[in-house]
Write a structure and sequence with these properties.
The structure holds two protein chains of two kinds. Chain A is an all-alpha fold. Chain A is 69% helix and 0% strand. The N and C termini of chain A lie far apart (63 Å). Chain B contains 18 helices and 20 strands. Chain B is α/β, with parallel strands linked by helices. The chains are: A mainly alpha, B alpha/beta.
Chain lengths: 318, 520
């Protein structure tokens, strides 16, 4: 029992960067922009969050920096695709290459300046992101560990996902935003400010991706800087968007399932099941590929990609 | 005449790309409580003018007054704030949303609770005689239901000036009549309505006044009661015209294309055609009528080999086409020319010039690894000359040509292949009078050559005037094959909705065709 709880808790922690990446990408695709730059925006968030924590020794500053860095990456993408109507795929891929490259360059530079060739976050900030402890609740058996034992990132992610779901399903602005992704011409004719909403959603989405990037280095890697810390999670997030059927709440459990796959290798009894570790490392990507095939074959209109996703909108087009 | 117009345009001009004058000092007056028809050929500037009223474009010159006050309409929001609502020809609806959500998109203020919204929609529906299920998803709706939602969108926002861009193009006669009843109710309610249509009989039926545009200028505004269809056409094209469609008598050749017991499943897996049997003879034009989505597309695609089928047979001059690929059908010398519904989507490559589009049909005939562009270029020049295609040159991408010219390129190419059967679908969709008549002439020319022509159409008047016989489809079944000379539009309309069982002789015809095919 306690083994299972440990596994679930670990899965949630491992899935959290995916949750941020997925929500960020959902916000992009919901306004019709297929943004393949998630990996890049997460990388930018990672370096910015890490360096901010390293210098300021303050968790809140680190989160803000990660958000702003991801948002800055998204801003470039938004200018290129929304205003200049460039191809989404090309722009997104470029953002990924740019984001990873810039992050590694900056990381390399600061590593060179450090005393012993490593950078580790100071003690004060690590204590701020330690798992929370709610008096009374956290001590409850099972429930306490399952619900009230995580670091603050995880609660931020879940709250964002739920708020986003409420926004989409319950508010007038959310309805307008969904209409933009489905049929921008319809939204435009109905008086929705398309450009503004596209910018807002893409930029905030990018910022949320950035927070996910910061998680990978500050929590997963225990606050020690390494290159390529995001390691392909951004791509899984893009696929998770499809798995979640573009719904923020599905992204929560979807990312935790994928988190479970990432840490499976530590929880399998190696004496009983002899499978190379490389297989487990491959598992999330393999499942991603399988899901993409299954989902693209499934034709349910309400669970399909926003119809205008990947296309640009120009009012005077005929 | 009241001194305050709902809309008054004075000297509106709009240029595109500095050169093309889409609107040249256009004047227009619209009163409350009237229906004004805006009439004109393609490219006469109707849509440009309406787009300026609905905030899509901004005029270069001129003034617009709404309710007596000068206004500047810079965006669709401005137009809506002025009470101007546009019902676009191509519906602007979100498919995965319900009717209710579509109506609510972009409305100011907080989101209205579903129950309240439902009540309000119901009120509007009752007032104007509209029918709609607020919770129905748009992708489940028929064309006429979608149009109802578009109208509701405008009414919900309290617009009192409505602009309808070719609203009847996709409706059956019965649906059109229903729409007109609704429009008249709105007019009597004091609303100002502009309706754009190509169909003169509808202009006569629905409007109080008509404003005619020609080449970007407003040439006349007349009281509907004091004019007729011929006068209006002359105003529109600028010279006297003969409105009747030619239907030459020809000798019919039996056994060109025989279809029997054909069943086809549509792309979504549902049955699209059920037990369809008929014959197209050489030297006749067989029209196909039906509400959009009744199996017309599947019929065309089954004959051309684009869509496989299991049951039934299609025999062309003794050769069974079943199981053959479109290319095999061509290689067998069995030539079927197919003008798809979507001219630029399936018929032509929009970014290529006329020459390259000709090559698509002929490239495989020249031996060797390289393409010889010379014959294709000659063919392009020949077509431009013969069909009077207006284009800057043979290498201009076809998407830059106007609809009529695109259609001429496509039809011309198919006719050049000297087909035995010519299939056209919506050949004149979106074309103006002159272009349409040019296309009718082309079809008649083929008919006189002995080609079997299958013409899928939407304008019943045209089908009745042009075709020899008309086949009516309803939900993938033939509800009748009738003689175009002795049938009325109302009968066709009823058959299209399946309200009338196939007439006896039609049923016999179908049975006979089936028997004959079975013998082959």
């Amino acid at each position: 029992m306690s083994f299972l709880i440990k596994f679930i808790v670990a899965a949630v922690v491992a899935g959290t960067p995916l949750l941020f990446g997925t929500i960020g990408e959902i916000m992009n695709e919901r306004v019709g922009h297929l943004n393949l730059g998630v990996e890049g925006m997460m990388s930018l968030g990672a370096i910015a969050g890490f360096m901010a924590a390293y210098r300021s020794d303050n968790f809140a500053v680190a989160i803000a920096a990660a958000f702003l860095a991801g948002a800055a990456g998204a801003l470039i993408y938004a200018i290129v695709t929304v205003t200049f109507m460039a191809n989404h795929t090309v722009a997104g891929l470029t953002l990924t290459i740019f984001g990873i490259g810039l992050t590694n360059v900056i990381g390399f530079y600061y590593l060179g300046m450090s005393e012993n060739g490593t950078m580790k976050l100071p003690e004060h900030v690590t204590s701020q992101m330690r798992s929370i402890s709610v008096p009374g609740l956290s001590d409850l058996p099972v429930v306490g560990e399952l619900l009230f034992s995580y670091n603050p990132f995880i609660y931020i992610g879940i709250v964002i996902a739920i708020l986003l779901a409420i926004f989409y399903n319950r508010t007038q602005a959310g309805l307008n935003v969904r209409a933009i992704g489905e049929n921008p011409a319809a939204a435009d004719a109905a008086g929705v400010h398309i450009l503004a909403w596209k910018y807002v959603n893409i930029i905030i989405g990018g910022g949320i991706c950035g927070i996910g990037g910061a998680f990978t280095i500050m929590i997963t890697n225990g606050g020690v800087w390494i290159s390529d810390c995001v390691g392909g999670l951004g791509w899984i997030a893009v696929a998770l968007v499809i798995f979640a059927a573009w719904k923020p709440v599905n992204a929560i459990w979807g990312s935790f399932v994928f988190g479970a796959m990432r840490i499976l290798k530590y929880y399998v009894n190696k004496e009983v099941i002899h499978i190379p570790d490389a297989f487990y490392d491959m598992l999330p990507f393999l499942v991603t590929a399988i899901i993409l095939v299954i989902v693209s074959a499934r034709q349910v209109r309400d669970k399909a990609q926003p119809a205008a996703c990947g296309t640009n909108y120009f009012r005077e087009d005929r | 005449m009241s001194e305050k117009y709902a809309i008054e345009c004075r000297g509106i001009s709009k240029r595109f790309g500095g050169k093309v004058l889409a609107n040249d000092k256009v004047d227009l007056q619209l009163q409350y409580g009237e229906i004004l028809s805006l009439l004109g050929e393609n490219g006469s500037g109707k849509t440009t003018l309406m787009n300026m009223l609905s905030g899509i474009y901004r005029p270069d010159e001129g003034e617009i007054f709404v309710g007596g006050k000068e206004v500047f309409i810079n965006s669709p929001v401005d137009a809506m704030d002025l009470g101007i609502g546009m019902i676009h020809q191509h519906f602007k609806l979100v498919d995965v949303f319900s009717a209710m959500d579509n109506i609510a998109i972009g409305t100011p203020g907080k989101r209205v609770a579903p129950a309240k919204l439902r009540t309000k929609i119901k009120e509007i529906c009752e007032r104007f005689g509209l029918e709609v299920d607020p919770d129905k998803k748009v992708y489940d709706m028929s064309v006429s239901e979608k149009q109802t939602v578009e109208i509701l969108k405008v009414l919900y926002r309290g617009s009192d000036i409505l602009i309808l861009d070719e609203p009847t193009a996709v409706l059956t006669p019965q649906e059109t009549r229903k729409l007109f009843a609704i429009l008249k109710k709105m007019r009597d309610d004091g609303k100002a309505i502009i309706i754009i249509t190509h169909k003169l009989n509808e202009v006569m039926e629905i409007s109080d006044r008509v404003t005619v545009l020609r080449k970007g200028k407003s040439v006349a505004t007349v009281e509907t009661a004091s004019t007729d269809e011929l006068k209006l056409t002359e105003l529109m094209v600028g010279h006297s015209v003969d409105l009747s469609i030619r239907r030459p008598e020809t000798e019919k050749k039996e056994g060109v294309l025989k279809i029997s017991g054909l069943c086809v499943d549509g792309s979504d897996g549902t049955r699209a055609l059920t037990d369809v049997s008929f014959e197209v003879r050489g030297g006749e034009i067989l029209g196909v009528a039906g509400v959009a989505g009744s199996g017309q597309k599947e019929l065309c695609e089954a004959i051309t080999g684009l869509m496989p089928f299991d049951t039934g047979s299609i025999v062309l001059e003794g050769t069974e086409l079943k199981g053959k690929s479109p290319f095999e059908i061509l290689n067998l010398g069995v030539s079927i020319s197919f003008v798809p519904e979507d001219r630029l989507g399936m018929g032509l490559v929009s970014s290529m010039g006329i020459t390259d589009n000709m090559l698509l049909r002929t490239y495989y005939k020249t031996p060797g690894y390289f393409i010889d562009r010379k014959p294709a270029k000659e063919m392009a020049d020949k077509l431009i000359d013969k069909l009077k295609i207006l284009t800057p040159g043979t290498e201009t991408p076809v998407r830059l040509l106007s609809g009529g010219n695109v259609q001429k390129v496509l039809l011309g190419r198919e006719i050049e292949a000297a087909p035995k059967v010519l299939i056209t679908a919506y050949a004149v969709r979106g074309l103006d009078i002159n272009s349409s008549y040019a296309i009718y002439d082309l079809l008649n020319e083929q008919k006189e050559k002995g080609v079997a022509v299958l013409n899928v159409g939407e304008d019943l008047d045209v089908l009745l005037g042009l075709c020899d016989r008309i086949l009516v489809l309803c939900h993938g079944k033939i509800t009748g094959i009738v003689d175009a000379k002795t049938t009325t539009k109302e009968q066709l309309g009823l058959m299209m909705t399946g309200a009338v069982k196939p007439a006896e002789d039609a049923a016999n015809n179908a049975a006979k065709a089936g028997e004959e095919a079975a013998h082959v």
